[in-house]
Amino acid sequence: MDYKREIAKLFAPHLTEEEAYSLLVPPKDIAMGDICLPCFRLAKTMRMSPVAIADKLAAELTLPPFVAEVKSVAGYLNFKFSSHDFASTVLGNVLSQGAVYGKSDLGAGKTVCIDYSSINIAKPFHIGHLSTTVLGAALYRLYKELGYNVVGINHLGDWGTQFGKLIVAYHKWSSKEEIERGGVRKLVEIYVKFHQEAEDHPELDEEARSWFKKLEDGDEEAVSLWKWFKEITLADDVPIYDRLGVHFDSYAGESFYNDKMDAVVDELAAKGLLTLSDGAQIVELDGMPPCIIRKSDGATLYATRDLAAAFYRKSTYDFAKCLYVVAYQQNLHFKQWFEVVHKMGYEWYKDLEHVAFGMVSLEDGAMSTRKGNAVWLTDVLDKAVEKAAEIIKQKSPDLDDPNEVAEMVGVGSVIFSALINNRIKDIEFRYDKILNFDGETCPYVQYTHARCASLLAKAGEWQAPRDYGALSDDVAKDILRNLERYPSLLREAADKNEPSMITRHVVDLCKLYNKFYFDNKILTAPDGVREARLALTLAVKTVMENGMAIIGIRLPDKM
Length: 559
Known about the structure:
This protein is α/β, with parallel strands linked by helices. The chain has helices at 3-8, 17-23, 43-46, 50-60, 83-97, 130-145, 162-173, 176-200, 203-216, 220-244, 261-270, 302-317, 331-343, 377-395, 402-419, 431-434, 442-459, 474-496, 500-519, 529-551, and strands spanning 35-38, 67-73, 76-81, 111-115, 149-153, 274-277, 280-283, 291-294, 321-325, 352-355, 360-362, 427-429. The chain has 20 helices and twelve strands.
């Protein structure tokens, strides 16, 4: 039973079920009840004050059996559930559904395209790619959980003058054997050397432009080297994606759209949207700078390629939403080309969404590939796992599989650091902070899960509870509210494209359960009480696993 849904049905004809459902929230003071309806929205239609409306509804509503009490308080209508009915229904739902608790068919028949990670070929997969990669992957899993058909797209940065630079650098300072031995790190090394040398020898830039022109014209050697650089980069990066549990359905990058841009430019011209400005072709926009479609030398830009990609995705996937998981520095870029789609007359421009996020930095500052001080993500993961292993060795020296647990904790902590706070917030990455076993961290969540798993393993077989009276205290009620809210929280997180809502929900659940664990005997509790508390423990463990699976974090049974 969806308690919130059943309560929402009570307010007809004053509110539709969906209107009431969206207004229902937990009271600020849990002593007032389990859920409440602010009556301010009804003041205009019922022509009464919110206080009078709450009083009237409290006296008139026919309450379902699971509602023990309804009270009018200062314009709010507060509902208190029957402890027994609420506990038995919530735990029954969680335990009967298990791994599918929270799943729905909300998005059945609809497709969501998600553009995330979008690494650059022949450049490091660095810490700056962390947020887009794990945020996009979490959204991918979240929309899947809600029944959508999801297309994960890695829009590779595999085109541009940097490939001319790389070809020049390869010819001058490297060899096939060196590149095959050193992989993408060697490619980065010669790319950095190019920029260092070009400061004193600007003629190198002209040589690079010449090689890129050859690539654009299909020169056999240029194309062969370009393909080889892509293969080397992906061979290095795919294992990182595997380690992070990240999946893509398409690796169609910028080069894929080379033969698809002219059609978009031609349509813009046919619709009279293109104007010339200093030789460049632009689209004038209201309230923001114009969107440049072609530069004066005829070269296309990111906007041109993004437009071509959007039209391709719409015709190929007929998406209901197309999300772009890109840092907030690109806000204007997306506003501009989204508006171009609008001016072209396509209503689906409303389905294009920029999922912006903050920047990631290390304690010692910013990074730059050109200067050679980018921090490789694989090195960050290795270091996090190494530090996790040291901590685990101190805390649990007899653990059966310490290396596997260290991998779960280390990698999970890196992912968690990007998904615990609102996505728009900048992140300063610190190992000591993310690997702390206390507070709002991945190890804290994983340790709580291990605590639940250990307790249930010790309990052995047990019967389903007959009496839920042992779950009537405030902390148990808070846990039940958290568990009951989980399915609707997933919908809210998708509405806002905000996976951190799930991460925080699980952290809050861990805090509540640990308080419950320390305040109550479980294994040694009297019969009846023991079963109810074990059922609560299993339900907590289940929701933790379901939520963290969406975030992309594995939870060990022992730590």
